[in-house]
Structure formats: C-alpha cells, structure tokens
Amino acid sequence: MSTPIPKSPGWLDWYAQPSEPAFTLPPGTVDTHCHVFGPQAEFPFAPERKYTPCDAGREQLLALHDHLGVSRRVIVQATCHGADNTAMVDAVRASGGRARGIATVRPDITDAELRRLHEAGVRGVRFNFLKRLVDAAPRDDLAAVAARIAPLGWHVVLYFESADLPGLESFFASLPTPLVIDHMGRPDVTRPAEGPEFSRFLRFVDRNDVWVKVSCPERLSRTGPAALNGERHAYTDVVPFGRRAVEEFPDRVLWGTDWPHPNLTDHMPDDGLLVDHVPLVATTPEQRHKLLVANPTRLYWPGEGA
Questions:
Q1: Which residues are catalytic?
Q2: Backbone dihedral region for residue 221 (phi beyond 0: left; psi -120 to 50: alpha; all else: beta)
C-alpha cells in the first residue's frame, strides 16, 4: 500500500458529528450536489489536482444522508480525482439505484465509455470555469463533449463566478444540452439580490434550459453567521438570493449539501444546521417539496412520481 499523501496545508475536514436538524426533510429528498474523496488508498487522487483533501468515502456520505434524512443523491465528480471517475462510479453503483453521477470527461472519451458511465447511473458532465481551479477556460473541450453527450439525454453542470457570466453567456446558451448551474452562479452577496448582477444571471436562467442549485451558502456568505454552535439562522446575507431564485423559478431549482465541503478555509459548517437553511429560502411547503423532491426527481429519475 502506498504512503498516504498529506492533505493540503490548512485543509478543513468535514464536520464529524452533525447536529439533528430542526427542519425535517420531506420523504424523497435528493442531495443534488455532494462528492466523494477517495479513500485515496483505494482511489488515488489525480496527479494534476489543485488540492489534496481528506478521505471522504461513500460510507461516510451515506451515513450523513441517513442522519439528515436524505433519500437519494447526485454525486458530482471531485476535481481532486480529475477525469478518473472510478470513485464516483463506485459510489453510484453501490447505491442500488438511489444515486446518480456527474462525471468529468475529455473530448477523446470513447462511445463505449460513455455508455458504461450511463449504465452506471451517470447523467451529466461537469465543467469548471473557476480561475483558481482550472488553468484555462475549457470552452473547446466543453463544446466537443456537449455534442457527444446530448444524444444520451445528459446535461452539463457549470461552475463559474457570476462576474464572469457576461463573457460566457452566449457560449453557454449555444450548448445543445440542459444546463445546471452550481451554487446560484456564485453571486457576490455584498451586492443587492435585486441588483443588476444577479438579475442578469436570472435572465440567463429564464431565457435558456437552465436549472439552478440553491446551495453552498457557507461558501457564498461574507457576514454569516456561520452554521455552527446551534445557529439555525445561518448565512442571512445569502438568504435573499436563494429566496429570489426559488420564487422566480420554483420548478427549476435544486438543493445540495456540497459535502464534504472542499476548499473551505474559514470554517467547516455543521451539516445539520445547513439543512435548517432550507426553510429560510424555500418558505412554503410547496416550494420545499419542489426544491427537494419533485424537481430533482424529474431531472434525475424521469418518469417516476414525486
């Protein structure tokens, strides 16, 4: 067995003993944004990775979901594993049909490999446009891959900063697949939720086949308070953005935990308290059911009732 690679300096491990949420997730809740890291002894990290995380395998993810009351999950390929989807596929296959996967693929992937991923439960690919995580905007690769996956009925998951949307919007709109946007397009929450930047993002959603993940308040917040020490009204500066997305696009919003919360540097949130953020942004039972159950079921398990 190879010697474990040390974690990146300052790496924050996931919260080991999450609290019991005060908000009860409805039956059928789907976590549409979570990851697995390794364990590296079984699933080594990619040599080209930008960070080295802690181990956070499928057993720990399932235990967390059982604790929180999450029924199903969408496991998003972590950048620390590059385009080797083995750990993600292993976790999806082990779920007995209760998980879907989002892969990282390159344009030279074979049709046979795409079919294998589809049969395993993969339903989309993710492309990262965050400048701190990628060396160059992967437009050409994304265009080529999108053309390959469209016949499978897959979608493209996009991660970008809202300030970069003006230069990317027309390219994204040209893609031949549905789009799923991570973390509300990472808005600058120091600006008004009704202001021009977030309004432009929502116009982009309105004009295209776009779904929005109302997720990661811990990553977007600037003033908190943090989801720690029993705080059940955390990240209040993010609430107006999530609430606006839910109210304007009730049938195209999704929720996810982002467990195990890669690359956080300030604090590691209590996942039980993060669940209590949901009713702050989805204020009615109907909104919550769409956000947590109906919408993700329609996207990832089409044909099933929700």
A1: 258
A2: beta
